[in-house]
Amino acid sequence: MMNRNKIFGAVALTTLAMTLAACNNKENAGGGAGSTLVIQESADIPTLDPGTTYDTASGQVVENLYETLVGYKGNSLTELAPVLATEWTGNDAGTEYRFTLREGVKFHSGNDFTCADAEYTLRRNLVTNTADSGNWFIAESLLGTPANANDDKSITWQRITDAVKCDGNVLVLKLPKTDPAFLAKLAYIGQGIVDSKHATEIGEWDGTEATWKEAVGKDLAGSPLSQKPSGTGAYKLVGRDASSVSATAFDGYWGEQKPSIKNVVIQKIPEQAARIQAFLKGDADFIEEGGRSIISSQLQGKPGVSVLDDLPNTTASGFSMNENIAKGGALGSGKLDGQGIPANFFSDADVRRGFVAAFDVPTYIEQVQEGKGAPRNFLLPDSFPGYDTNIEAAAFDPEVAKAAFQRAWDGQVWENGFSVNVSYRAGSVTQQTAMELLKKNIESLNPKFKLNIVAKEWSELIKSDNAPKEAMILSAWAPDYADPDNFVTTFYASTGYYGPRLNVKDTQMDALITEARTTTDQARRDDLYAQIAKRGLDQAYYVVMPASPNVFTYRDNIGGVSESTYNPMIAFWAGTYWKNLTKS
Q1: Fewest CB atoms less than 10 Å from the CB: which of 14, 53, 125, 190?
Q2: SUPFAM superfamilies of this UniProt entry (predicted)?
Q3: Per residue in 280-332, pLDDT tens?
Q4: Alpha helix positions (H), 222-309
Q5: CB within 8 A of 247, min separation 6: which ones?
Q6: 583 pairs with which residues across the strands?
Q7: DSSP letters of 498-536?
Q8: Which strand ranges, in their side-by-side order, compose the sheet holding 235-241?
Q9: Among 434, 449, 431, CA closest to 362
């Protein structure tokens, strides 16, 4: 039930999201509270309904219109701070949480925020829980299953109401078992609290038992709430069409940090050259630049341009190896005869070890990342808790690769050779470069080794019925919440997102992951993740791509942008909320 748009953003290796902004900056000469923040990006914004927000483009707008019960403290990925909940407590078993809710808060509609709104929001997310939303992971915590009631018939109205209910102005949430990531999941903007009175008035689900079955799995992308949002955020919607979104500061905002910039205009500008021209002229404050190379060659050092670099990157990616390629897939002859590979070619760990040792990470960092970044030992961002920097990453070593291939399949790989097709997303220069580096090194080991690089459309690569047919593709993930389990289960568990697609079943790994995701002892979790990282390296499940620091540009008259305020879990790529920005 993972969102393909989110995965696409990660696989494209761009943490830039989708669209914001443009209006004539001549109107902004006054600066200060009367100014307009102008942001330009390449694509549209799918939804403004928190209940189905699961892409960065939507998230960076929704997170400024709505608020969650808890949020991240400053730039920390481990400390949470009160937002609409002023405090919370949990029982010793970690199966019940009580949230005292903030008083004196208004929605954009003028309605008062009450516990009924928080109750409605979470129940609505559990009821609808479509595949296009991130509600699978909150359902997994509160109901014990990522599914909705259409897919899991054991889900009843009683289970939902027992899991989420009000006790006066206190929201009580009950879990069937301990989930150490639960509070972090509540910080995800998909759990932004909606105005229940407003929602039902404009035609959303009415929140009752009588109608809940009709709302199960309902598509919310174009919902009434997406068209007419009402949150408690510092900005409220002014207008939206196919190519633009505009918002203005909410005069009734409860927070101490009031917006300094009054208006935000969000516009779709597909042409990169047009965005760059507007930015250099000062007609846009932020733009989707197009990557590090564009910044260094066309923007850095230009008048009025500021660059913030070496920021934490919370995307993890690696080339995966399918251990049982489906019939009709990338098999060639289907034999170890130099003309193809058998379906289970990558099930031999020495084959995988050979590929891992043949990938030249230092050269990739130098050529693609302009020398920025470092090797990773694990498909977990090194900025996340649970990443052990003391574990050495796999090294580029042709001799190690050669020895591994000589051992593989009792010597048959080395003696007979192979021909294997590897696929990358058409149009991705970074993926193509990585594949070409791997091809060069693999084929230099043995003239009988052939690596055939094939460009394919992303829609073809991610089809669940097609993915198992691929021998090797880039697998990537951007986080839903700041907990290592969001990456570790996704990449390494047999039942995770990628496990079934790679036909990997490692009972030892599964046991470590199961324990790590059910214990609240942080020291024990860290130890378990270190063991998982070592197991992953030993078994060489992925060619782990290096960390690539985030970088972005902004006009130098924008304040509130800095490394100390940057939190990568905030969807807007400046890593902070619009309310924290100033414009002079």
Answers
A1: 14
A2: Periplasmic binding protein-like II
A3: 999 999 999 988 889 999 999 999 999 999 999 899 999 999 999 988 777 88
A4: 224-227, 272-281, 292-294
A5: 61, 64, 65, 235, 236, 237, 238, 263, 264, 266, 578
A6: 558
A7: SHHHHT---HHHHHHHHHHTT---HHHHHHHHHHHHHHH
A8: 235-241, 244-249, 263-268, 36-41, 286-287
A9: 434
